[in-house]
Write a structure and sequence with these properties.
By secondary structure, the protein is an alpha+beta fold. It folds into 2 domains: 3-106 and 172-197; 114-161, no CATH class. It has 7 helices and 6 strands. The chain has helices spanning 3-38, 44-63, 71-81, 84-93, 97-102, 116-120, 177-197; strands at 106-112, 127-132, 139-144, 150-155, 163-170, 173-176. A 3-stranded antiparallel β-sheet has the order 1-5-6. It has a 3-stranded antiparallel β-sheet with strand order 2-3-4, with no helix packed on it. The chain is elongated and about 70 Å long.
Length: 199
């Protein structure tokens, strides 16, 4: 190999290494945020959002590398990027509510250990139903007005009533965030490790 070709190869490898280093840094932040979310502290929702955003950020960074580590690695990356769960996370990261609703996966909040008596003690006059998590994760009452029309009144229930988690679902069923995100993190870590070995 000529000296010029070696220099070009070295420059390419350095660029690939820098991209992988940046992707690993984002993935490490996602892991830390995920662990903080699992502690279910006061800022759990913020840590969940940080974990989701950083996880998708890793995909965007690795995309710049997908042709540099061989056809097998590129095939693995492309397959992961095309999965409904990753597409759903991209819509979530980009704030694309239309994509969340119209895509192959949808999001909702799910409730555990709901205290019904405590909930209905908060009900406004005319309340006929309570929704504990619309597509934006907000809770609301369906209130029937005297003229028969119905309207939504949003409210924030006390944290003592329930614990929430993010759920993605498609035609194959539901994917709780406790399963979906850790699996994606593991797959991304495997891709980074494999790419690093090919440098």
């Amino acid at each position: 190999m000529s000296k010029g070709k070696r220099r070009r190869s070295s420059k390419r490898d350095k660029s690939s290494g820098e991209i992988l280093k940046s992707a690993q840094s984002s993935l490490d932040r996602a892991k830390r945020a995920w662990e903080r979310y699992r502690e279910r502290g006061a800022d759990a929702d913020l840590f969940l959002n940080e974990a989701l955003i950083n996880t998708v950020g890793v995909m965007y960074k690795l995309r710049n590398n997908k042709r540099r580590h061989g056809p097998e690695w590129e095939s693995r990356f492309t397959a992961l990027e095309a999965t409904p769960r990753m597409q759903w996370l991209k819509h979530y990261r980009d704030g694309d509510q239309h994509g969340l609703e119209e895509g192959t996966m949808s999001s909702s909040a799910y409730i555990k250990h709901l205290g019904s008596a405590e909930l209905w003690g908060m009900a406004p006059p005319g309340a006929v139903n309570a929704s504990l998590g619309d597509q934006f994760g907000r809770c609301f009452w369906t209130v029937r007005r005297p003229d028969g029309r119905e309207e939504r009144r949003y409210f924030v229930p006390p944290q003592s009533m329930f614990s929430t988690g993010l759920v993605g679902s498609d035609e194959n069923g539901e994917y709780e965030i406790e399963t979906l995100l850790p699996n994606l993190i593991d797959e991304l870590q495997s891709l980074i490790d494999s790419a690093s070995r090919s440098l």
